[in-house]
Amino acid sequence: MKAQGKSHILITGGAGFIGSHVVRRFVNKYKDYIIVNLDKLTYAGNLANLHDVEHESNYAFVKGDICDATLLAGLFEKYSFDGIIHLAAESHVDRSISNPMDFITTNIVGTVTLLNAARNAWSDFSGKRFYHISTDEVYGSLGKTGYFTETTNYDPRSPYSASKASSDHLVRAYHHTYGLPIARRKIRRHFWLLDVASRQHATRLARTASGSEEGRLVRFFRAQHVESPNRPAKECSRDQEARR
Ligand SMILES: NC(=O)c1ccc[n+]([C@@H]2O[C@H](COP(=O)([O-])OP(=O)(O)OC[C@H]3O[C@@H](n4cnc5c(N)ncnc54)[C@H](O)[C@@H]3O)[C@@H](O)[C@H]2O)c1
Prior knowledge:
Largest sheet: 6 strands, parallel
Order of helices and strands: EHEEHEHHEHEHHH
Shape: globular
Helix content: 40-55%
Number of helices: 8
Structural class: alpha/beta
CATH topology: Rossmann fold
Number of domains: 1
Number of strands: 6
Strand order of the largest sheet: 3-2-1-4-5-6
Bound molecules: nicotinamide-adenine-dinucleotide
CATH superfamily: NAD(P)-binding Rossmann-like Domain
Strand content: 5-15%
């Protein structure tokens, strides 16, 4: 049931490498938010990552699949989410080469199932946001020099990056077609390499990364409650949001 006066945020994939940092950060820092972590607990998910917050009163864990429309509808009804931070994914390139269908199912079908759940539940989009986490790998590969920008053409090279590119397009399509309020981030793949090399260093980096993302998100959600609840839905590019 929705707690009065509290924002309710659904975080998918919160038992994963990045998701667990995002969940911990929100649970510890924003006591006025109820954080619901939906995770299927695949080989990549580990609840031990969240041992220190599992009993917090503003945190709930739900084991489940983002492809399960019935489960999602029930969660939206129970919690009336104000926002979604969508991190759940099959995320390892090598596995996408050996087993692409898992990536198509979770990253594409799962994302659309989540988009549909949000669209069905949010009769009024004001104050709501679907925050989609993607990867810079949708732009292809760089040599030793160069960089990607928000306007670089998509050029995915693996089933993983192709599935993430598809999910990006679908999130954007739901914004343009239905007006669903969205934000997208294409983060860089370096955390897991560092994780292997130095868990401590990776943890510090991930905290920094989720911290800056978190700042934008929190500013957004707080602004929605204080400023203009009827502000029209807008897609925010990284540059636009950085200027806020
Ligand atoms: N790690 C990186 O360097 C990196 C870089 C760029 C983008 N990303 C993106 O960031 C997000 C998080 O990445 P990560 O490294 O934490 O991934 P991860 O593989 O460590 O965690 C993914 C989480 O999603 C869960 N999950 C998988 N399928 C699910 C399903 N069908 N339903 C519900 N939960 C499911 C897993 O159990 C796991 O906890 C992903 O969307 C990924 O594409 C990650």
